[in-house]
Amino acid sequence: MTDIHDFGAAQPQRPIGLAVDLARHHLIPNEKILKRSIPVLTGVFLLLTAIGVSVFLFNRYHHSLAAAILRTSLMADLVQSELNRRLAPTVADSGMALIPSQNDLAQSLPENATLDGRIFLLTDGNGRIRATAPLTNEYKDMRLTDVIGINQPLTTLGRQAGVQNIELVSGSNLGMTVLATVRSIGRNPGQIAVLQPRGAALAEWRSDLTGYVTLFGLTAIMLSLMTGAFMWQAGRTTAAEDTLKDTTKKLNKALGRGRCGLWDWDLARGQVFWSSSMFDILGLPPREALLSFGEIHALTHPDDPDLYELAGRLAKGKTPHVDMEFRMRHAEGHWVWLRARAEMTESESEIGPHLVGILVDVTEQKALAEMTEQADMRLNDAIENISETFVLWNRQNRLVKCNSKYLQFYDLPAEIARPGAKYEDVMANAKDPNVRTQVEVRRDDDKNSATFEARLSDGRWLHINERRMADGSFVSIGTDITSIKRHEEKLLENEKTLIGTVRDLEVSQRTLEEQAQQLAELAESYAHEKTRAESANRSKSEFLANMSHELRTPLNAIIGFSEMMRSSMFGPLGSDKYQEYASDINNSGQYLLEVIDDILDMSKIEAGRFDISMEYADLNMLIKDCLKIVYPRACEDNIHILNKVSDGQMVCCDKRAVKQIVLNLLSNALKFTDPGGRVRISTETEGDNITLRISDTGIGIPDAEIRRIGQPFAQVENQMTKSYGGSGLGLAISRSLVELHKSQLEIDSQEGLGTQVSFRLHAPQETCRSCLWEGQNGNCPQDCARAPGDEGVEAS
Q: Please, are residues 796 and 637 in contact by the beta-carbon 8 Å criterion?
């Protein structure tokens, strides 16, 4: 067997292969000229053949005519000589001329003398015809001149006139052209005339003419048919070549677009054919010549499977097909991952086995797989590092993912809770926690999700959220809310303490009324209890602030992971429902976070820890920033917002606080205004103050409830407002922030017609510190206070 390392060595090429190479490199470039020259060469050949045949027939014609003339002359001489021999003794004996007879003519004719239409006419001394051969009465007793005509030299000159072409002037052959010659008969005054029809004399030539013309015609027809067939076949070949080129071009384009290429490995010669797309994949210039095995092996990565070893297995028949991945060096120096899929083939037209297959560029797939693996690692790390228990089951109730918190919660060994494990097997090995109390928080109508809180026997509280996905998978997240529950218990205890304190105050007051004599002691006790109440209230505020911070910790995890799932940061979730569920989780978390922020702000305000930073600001710019936030909700509810605040109204305020005030007031106005309603924003300048008014056409506030509005957690409770929700802190925060600006929040409302809320801000006539803008009605050189919407912003 040939050594596999010699496959790439030079080997003698087959003669057929050499001929094909020569044809490809030398004949193919002149193929078009050859195709065009074939009809011309055929025409030239037929023309030359026609000329040659014509010249030949022309010479043949003259040769046949000369031979006929010679035969006619010889025949006349022979008959003359025989007649002279036969008639000479008779004339000598009688001493007078004799009239030749028919018998004399018949005896003087040689054998086959009358063939080819020859006519012999024997005349007497008077020129009358006395005998004919063949025998006929047509010319009997006619003068010879009546047959051959008068104006001719034959009857006068005889032999000297030779053989003449004449036309017969009488008889059945009138007008026939004949070869004629006349001989005088010795001493006898008679003459012998030999006539041979010209057509009969040239009969052999005419036969040759017919044969040659027929042969030439058949030859011309055959050559024409062959030329036509050649041109037709050449046309088909050209069309087939064009189709092949077009198909090859499309195939190469398709292969190039698909980042794959064809290859044919001749194991016997160690030569490999590559499609042009293979060269494109490796950034190499395309070439028609076959590649040697050594050239390809030099491009492969040294750490990948050895192609020499593969070739050895293929040559020994150990591997009928190939499916492997390896790297090849790109022309720019980097490595390209390729997947080869091929099969051994043999055919009668090829010597030795061939490995034919396809190579696919899988570099991007490799990079994507690596990125996916890294993303999975990050996701696993994130799930593992969260403080909640997490488990995900697929639709076949097989485990997909869980973290160590889940294993600890159910006291599961890691080898049991492996991905792909059945739910029944995992639960069979799990130790159910001892649940003392279970409180259902929320359950959807479709029964695909549930949220409940469970109190364990060790005193811990868990907030468990379970959801069935659209594809049938199931996810469960458990959050330890023990600290939250403890804070809630403390809060309840403080509230009970506060209630008890208030009751004690009431008892003390009644006691003061009943026992006037103990007024001083009761007053002192009342002051003491009041101090305790205020201290309890401050403790409550501080507790709420601390509690808000504690609530934000799990919420940040919920919001963060739901945002990651909603944005598909680590890849698609597999269903649009996942996106919807992630959005619901994120929106709910954001809402709860906003409530916590309100509680935190309120707590800071009540605790006196909310600081404001006064600066100059364009009031309309602050309002426009708030309008950008509420604008989508206004459009959704079909509520028109009209901004009548003009640019350039500079106020001295805390920008963040004013934005929060305006945003809370706009949110309340939109919340309590029915679709199709209107919200109006306007200002009124009063000296150094600007009054900002926000009015709506909403449901309004009863007079009895206006005084209570603005207190923490206070909402108007009636049949019309039960569906609006909210924490009730927005207006209280706004009132407190307005008071920090040394102003008051004024509410004017009429039930069923709408509400107007207003407050004043200080607007001193001073120079703008940021842009040196003098006054309120001048033109700012930096255009810092200009913004669209000078005539009002309407949302619908």
A: no
What's the alpha-carbon Rg for the chain, to the nearest Å?
63
Residue 619 makes CB contacts below 8 A (sequence gap 6+) with: 645, 649, 650, 651, 658, 683, 690, 692, 761
Cis peptide before 110 (omega within 30 of 0): no
CA 435 to chain CA centroid, nearest Å: 57
What is the domain range of residue 450? Answer: 369-480
Give the pair of three-digit tokens for residue 384.
């593992």
Is residue 329 in a domain? yes
Q: How is the beta sheet containing 119-123 ordered, strand by strand?
A: 129-133, 119-123, 191-197, 177-184, 164-167
- Greatest Cα-to-Cα distance within the chain, rounded to the nearest angstrom: 225
Chain position carrying tokens 């001193």: 764
Q: Residue 18 contacts by C-beta under 8 Å, 6 or more apart in sequence?
A: none
Distance in angstroms (rounded) separating the CA atoms of residues 654 and 640 = 28
Long-range contacts at 38-44 (CB < 8 A, ≥ 24 apart)? 38/227, 38/230, 38/231, 38/234, 39/227, 39/231, 42/223, 42/224, 42/226, 42/227
Task: Identify whether the C-beta of residue 694 lies closer than 8 Å to the C-beta of residue 715.
Answer: no
Amino acid at 580: E
528-549 b/e (C-beta count within 10 Å ≥ 16 → b):
eeeeebeebeeebbebbbebbe
**Other C-beta atoms lying within 10 Å of the C-beta of residue 593:** 17
Question: Which CATH number characterizes residue 699's domain?
Answer: 3.30.565.10
Q: Give mean pLDDT in consecutive 10-residue pieces for the chain, a chain of 796 residues.
A: 38 35 44 78 87 88 86 85 75 57 80 82 82 82 81 79 82 80 78 85 83 87 85 80 75 71 74 78 78 78 78 70 82 84 71 76 82 83 80 85 81 82 83 59 60 73 80 80 83 88 82 69 74 76 69 80 80 76 78 72 72 89 91 90 91 91 89 91 91 92 76 51 58 86 89 91 65 40 37 40
Place of tokens 């303490």: 497
Let me know whether 498 and 541 are in one domain.
yes
| Among 361, 385, 406, residue at a domain's last position | 361
Sign of the Cα torsion 321, 324, 330, 333 reads: negative
Same domain for 200 and 83: yes
The overall pTM is greater than 0.85: no
Candidates 116, 119, 118; CA nearest to 206 is 116
Q: How far apart are CA 417 and CA 426, in angstroms?
A: 6
Both 501 and 594 in one domain: the answer is yes
* CATH code at position 138: 3.30.450.20
Q: Are 188 and 51 in contact (CB under 8 A)?
A: no
Copy the structure tokens of residue 592.
């709860």
CA pseudo-torsion sign 516, 517, 522, 527: positive
β-partners of residue 372 are none
Task: Tell me: do 629 and 750 sit in the same domain.
Answer: yes
Answer yes or no: is 3 within a domain: no
**Hey, CA dihedral for 488, 490, 491, 496, is it positive or negative?**
positive
Q: Does residue 601 contact residue 740 with C-beta atoms inside 8 Å?
A: no
Domain stops at, among 480, 500, 524:
480
503 lies in some domain: yes
Are residues 112 and 62 part of one domain? yes
CATH of residue 418: 3.30.450
Provide the residue type at 393 as one letter.
W
Q: Which amino acid is at 358?
A: I
User: Are 266 and 354 spatial neighbours (Cβ–Cβ below 8 Å)?
Assistant: yes
Verify that 717 and 754 share a domain, yes or no. yes
Residue 632: both structure tokens together: 């989508």
What total of structural domains would you count in the chain?
5
Same domain, 445 and 399: yes
**In-domain check, residue 626:** yes
The full 3-state SS of 175-186, as one line of letters, equals: CCEEEEEEEECC
Q: Are residues 597 and 615 in the same domain?
A: no
In Å, what is the CA distance from 719 to each residue of 602, 696, 706, 724, 747? 27, 20, 17, 11, 21
